[in-house]
Design a protein that fits this description.
Elements: E1 4-7, E2 16-19, E3 30-33, H1 72-79, H2 83-95, H3 115-121, H4 135-155, H5 162-171, H6 173-183, H7 185-196, H8 202-219, E4 224-228, E5 235-238, H9 241-249, H10 254-264, H11 266-274, H12 281-293, H13 301-321, H14 323-334, H15 339-348
Antiparallel strand pairs: 1-2, 3-5, 4-5
InterPro entries: Peptidase_M41-like (IPR037219)
Keywords: Membrane, Transmembrane, Transmembrane helix
GO biological process, one term: proteolysis
Length: about 350
């Protein structure tokens, strides 16, 4: 999802460039991920948060449900990757009074939304949300250039011809790196992703971002069958066979587009509420743009801009309203909990 994708008129008044890649085979509905170059998946790092804020583990067995509530059918449906069975089971659990947060967000029709509303809600630097971050790329390339430059200077002091050839070879490394990025962008993006893990906030950002997608999907009634925080496989799998067919046919109506837009913008919204600079927005905007392109009737640039703002606003509102569930889910996911345990974390959160 890197290089040559253009998101026009989204959130900020000017156009901004992001990345694009061929989509990963969608398992069901849509896979929310971060950007790479050759895949519809992002280079995030698998990890376990060690901060005391996220130290509690959510390893909850099925017996933790309320008395008389059997979660084994839900567990079986998730293991079978049966989206319809997961929806039906959660609907039944909600009727029994357990899955109270499942599909608890009623449909809210799209409306005109301003940047001021985003700022008032708590989104930091709302006007820059759609500008792709180059922090990780710049840090990686600067490190490569700086390190090789220093080594080349030191190698210049070697005796004889070594003092000529070695600095020449070392000095060509940045050019080789750029060449690899042009020929095989995925390799360069993987290296940048691994390097980015050294940023103090990087691991927490990933967990917060993916937990937001998971939570908002659950609140809006989209079944989750899996997620991953492993390197190159970071995503939340949302599956609805009926919607999948509609999306592939290019006949996505405005109501379903609104719901999927909110889920797509959840990760961006979660970062915007916490950090001054959003890093993982390129994939979210890319996902939304693909959904917009498959919707009927087509949206104008101004309508696309407003849809994005509105979706960020509603997603951020859901995250703030369900802050306890979001933090509990963040902790569960960072401790590699199962999907069922993540659902239990949401439902049992204060």
């Amino acid at each position: 999802m890197k290089h040559l994708w253009r998101q026009e008129g989204v959130i900020c008044s000017s156009s901004s460039n992001g990345g694009e890649a061929a989509p990963r085979k969608m398992a069901g509905l849509v896979t929310i991920v971060r950007p790479t170059t050759t895949d519809f998946v992002s280079p995030l790092i698998g990890f376990r948060i060690r901060s005391s804020d996220f130290g509690r583990k959510w390893r909850i067995g099925a017996s933790s449900a309320a008395p008389g509530i059997d979660l084994k059918p839900l567990e079986a449906a998730i293991e079978k990757k049966d989206g319809e069975a997961v929806k039906e089971t959660l609907d039944q659990l909600r009727e029994l009074g357990w899955a109270k947060k499942w599909s608890s967000q009623p449909y809210v029709s799209r409306r005109m939304t301003s940047l001021r509303e985003l700022t008032t809600l708590g989104i930091k630097n709302a006007e820059n949300l759609a500008i792709p971050s180059v922090r990780n790329d710049a840090a990686f390339l600067s490190t490569v250039v700086g390190t090789t430059g220093a080594l080349a200077v030191l190698a210049g002091k070697l005796p004889g011809d070594w003092g000529f050839f070695v600095p020449y070879i070392i000095g060509s490394i940045p050019l080789i790196v750029l060449a690899i990025g042009s020929v095989s962008p995925g390799l360069l993006q993987a290296a940048i992703g691994a390097f980015s893990s050294f940023f103090p906030d990087y691991q927490e950002r990933i967990a917060r971002h993916e937990a937001a997608h998971f939570l908002v999907a659950y609140l809006t009634g989209l079944p989750i069958l899996g997620y991953s925080l492993d390197l190159g496989k970071e995503h939340v799998n949302l599956i609805d066979e009926g919607l999948q067919k509609v999306i592939y046919s290019g006949q996505l109506d405005s109501k379903e587009l609104d719901r999927l837009a909110v889920v797509s913008m959840a990760g961006l919204a979660a970062e915007g509420l916490k950090y001054d600079k959003v890093v993982g927005q390129s994939a979210d905007l890319f996902t939304l743009q693909r959904l917009i392109n498959r919707s009927k009737p087509p949206l104008s640039k101004d309508q696309q801009q407003n849809l994005t703002r509105w979706a960020v606003l509603l997603a951020a509102s859901l995250i703030k309203t369900n802050r306890g569930a979001h933090e509990a889910l963040l902790s569960a996911m960072s401790n590699k909990a199962t999907v069922l345990e993540c659902i239990q974390a949401i439902e049992t959160a204060a």
